[in-house]
Fold this sequence. Notes:
2 domains, 3-stranded antiparallel beta sheet, Peroxisomal Thiolase, Chain A, domain 1, 478 residues
Amino acid sequence: MGRVFVIGVGMSKFVKPGTGGDYVDFAKEALCKALNDANVLIEQIKRAYVGYVYGDSCCGQRVIYESGMTGMPIFNMNNNSSSGGTALHAAKEAVEFSISDCVLALGFEKMERGTLKHDFKDRSSPLEKHIRIMSDLHGLSSEPFPVQLFSHAGMEHVKKYGTRLEHFAKIAYKNHKHSVNNPYAQCRDEYSLDEILKSPNIFGLLTKLQCCPISDGAAAAVLASEHFVRTHGLESRAVEVLGMEMCTDLPSSFDRTFINLVGFDMTRTVAQRLFQKTNRKPSDVQVVEVHDCFSVNELLTYEALGLCELGKAGEMIDRGDNTYGGKYVVNPSGGLISKGHPLGATGIAQCAELCYQIRGEAGKRQVEGATLALQHNLGFGGATVVALYALGMSSQYNDQTRKEVAMAKDELGFTVAPYFKILEQVLLLDEQNTIDKFRGIYGFKVQKRTGEEGYWLVNTKTGKGTVEFNNISDNILF
């Protein structure tokens, strides 16, 4: 598998629905900004993955055609609020598995005013399992379904761990304060803690200023391979995707606890997988963008991601370890609560913010010393995407490494290449530690019918094992 880099990002300002134009306008702005940021042309993009929820089929084609009709494959994706993260995940895999060397992830939304609605009344809801549990345990009210779920999840946390209502309000206070410095944010007003607690009640423990607004807007990211980055001289600003994992609902999601019903176990499972594969730990991170559709979800996510121990989120908040001067800075953008939440754009907007932070380009909201960034994007029904980002082309890559990369041929064209990729995945997921029986370094030489040779190095001497492609036989140990 190859390394993957974000080489350009762009956003439109997130705005109140109906106040800023059509989805085509938002998406074109974000796409053009991402292309300019990456210093590439639309003709260099080999395929595109487009996330949105509210729109007709083929909206992805409609917006990309505004910048050029190149014939590239365009994939439209809908995973509720994680549609943007899903598009990003697909784009990352396209580069990682050498399908394309330069791809686009684009997300946008043009939403209707008011609460989210289930548009199709003549068929089963995709949230039918969630609705049934809610109905059985608490009944259903006329308030928006998501706010009911998260309010009940928050009350579970209060009863189980002694969390106070002020802890949820403090999260909203922090995010509104952060957004003052974000020119892309829909809401840039700062509120006192008392104003947040006394704002109109939406449902249960959640007040208006603890809930994200619906929004119009778009975000885009250009992802590329290491070879593309080096051959186009983009090393200085390329942000590496160290890892990105996705998870859908688990049996435990429906164990009749609201904390799991809103995605806690999904997030915990996928975060553990991400940190294990990247050989990182939560305490290594400095800056985080989490899916704070409600203040409750941000609090739950602290624990699910491992930023603090179970039941200790309240203490983390009281210490200020979720803002500037603390252990982490969470949602420097203002998060969904204040930046806004155009469903299809959110996951990619999180990526954009973290790239600005890693590159030191976040202006007044810059997190000092940010070198490792964590993203969390959640969608009901369900899917969770988490990712780790770091500045990719640092001085640790010496001249010899650069020469070897420049000399290495593309592994495409070798029939066995996909099987070595599968082997690497198997090694990474070896939960039974079977690999302990086969510690060593193994070299494989493969020859095409044309006579061209390729070499794969399988190193199982330490860790979970790695698989690398190389065409230089002198570097292979047999």
